[in-house]
Design goal:
Layout (H helix, E strand, L loop, with lengths): L15 E3 L3 H23 L6 H22 L2 E4 L2 E4 L5 E4 L3 E7 L2 E6 L3 E4 L6 H12 L7
Antiparallel strand pairs: 1-2, 2-3, 3-4, 5-6, 6-7
Helix pairs in contact: 1-2
């Protein structure tokens, strides 16, 4: 007799992440490293310029943006709520969506109380297909 025990940790979560394109993430990482290398070179060669602090700050900002976007990703769909992951995130309950508009390849998702704009140029192709499937399952007219 085989007994299978499924703990709550192994159960499938209903969360979905709509991912940024790898190209976007790589750009942030590369720019962050380049600015930090430039700052390090300026310190090593003792250029003594005030621009060193700017190079250092830019490097840190780009690396922080990379870390944030890589960990949080562009959109999250969890427990019936779609949220745009930014410093100040926006969220809409999927049950409250009344209109989905598509213009120039971008989506605008509207509820009675909120509006969420989704730039599809930031989304990787596989995730975009998943997003289209979720928005298509809402049974709303796309305008």
């Amino acid at each position: 007799m085989i007994v299978i025990f499924i703990s709550p940790l192994t159960q499938r979560r209903t969360a979905m992440k709509i991912r940024y394109t790898k190209k976007r993430l790589q750009r942030f990482l590369i720019f962050g490293i380049l600015w930090l290398v430039l700052a390090a070179a300026a310190i090593v060669f003792n250029l003594g310029s005030v621009f060193i602090y700017g190079y250092l700050i830019l490097g840190i900002v780009f690396l922080a943006a990379y870390a944030f976007e890589n960990s949080r990703q562009y959109l999250s769909i969890e427990n019936g709520i779609i949220s745009k992951n930014q410093l100040i995130s926006k969220a809409i309950n999927l049950n409250e969506i009344v209109q989905v508009s598509k213009f120039a390849g971008n989506y605008t998702v509207k509820s009675n109380s909120a509006e969420l704009k989704i730039n599809t140029a930031f989304i990787e192709q596989h995730s975009l297909a998943e997003l289209k499937k979720v928005l298509g399952s809402l049974n709303l007219e796309a305008k």
